[in-house]
Amino acid sequence: MNTPLIEGCVDSYASAMAAAAAGADRLELCANLAIGGTTPSPALFKQVQRDCNVPINVLIRPRFGDFLYSRPEMEEMCTEIRAFRSLGANGVVIGALTPEGDLDTEKMRRLMDCAGEMEVTLHRAFDMTRDPLEALEAAVSLGCRTILTSGQAAGAPAGLEVLKTLRTRAAGRIDIMAGCGVKKENIRLLYQGAGITSFHTTGRGAPLDSGMVYRKTGVSMGLPSLSEYEVWRTDPEEFRACAEIVHGLGKPE
Q1: Is 221 exposed, middle or buried (0-12, 13-18, 19+ CB in 10 A)?
Q2: What angle is formed at CA 184 by the lines to CA 53 and CA 133, rounded to 5 degrees?
């Protein structure tokens, strides 16, 4: 688990291809990154799987918001996990909490049973738990391969001390992967300050301007704070710079 790894967080074919070509060791494929990510379509998965040879883990999240899931939502997620398993996904990225802010081990076991032999990453539901060390032990006991976390902070650099504690407590039993706000400027900080060697990033640069010539004002299809005429994608140069740093960690400079 100490081998440096960079995972591209992508929600489109274009971003997936850019991250794979720029050195991603693995992809987390999702949809709707603007709201934190939701489950991608099987059609998108099959396109990405067809055209790149990077292992693909799939985010399983039915909606925006909390991680307290109803019976129908659990049924939906189980069905999705089985579907992506049958399509050949490398792994799934999941998480479920109790109302009290603990990892819901009963629901997690149900989801993991559906995953079978696939790798399982506990996503940033972990960052919303009451006690991160207790949640860490629960994830280990469940058999999760990885915890994706910002150290329960607004961004991974701000969660540096918690990330350090988590990695020490994990003691190689589970991989602690830093995510949220990971950029080329702070990868070495996270490595030197917390011993983190696994990183999760969109590698996103400045938004691309839409090709629309006619632009309707005063109408929004989603969150009013987001422009309908900006396209967010992985920047291959930004991602490549991150990948080169990650892959060089621990080597003489």
Answers
A1: exposed
A2: 85
pTM over 0.90: yes
99-146, pLDDT tens digit by residue?
999 999 999 999 999 999 999 999 999 999 999 999 999 999 999 999
Residues of the chain under the 70 pLDDT cut: 1, 252-253
Q: How far is CA 200 from CA 122, 130, 203, in A?
A: 13, 23, 9
Cross-strand partners of 58: 29, 92
DSSP run (H or E) holding 160: helix 160-170
Give dist(CA 172, CA 64) in Å, integer.
32
CB-CB neighbours of 37 under 10 Å: 21
Tell how strand 56-59 and strand 119-122 pair up. Answer: unpaired
Q: How far apart are CA 192 and CA 249, in angstroms?
A: 9
Predicted confidence at residue 253, as pLDDT, reads 61
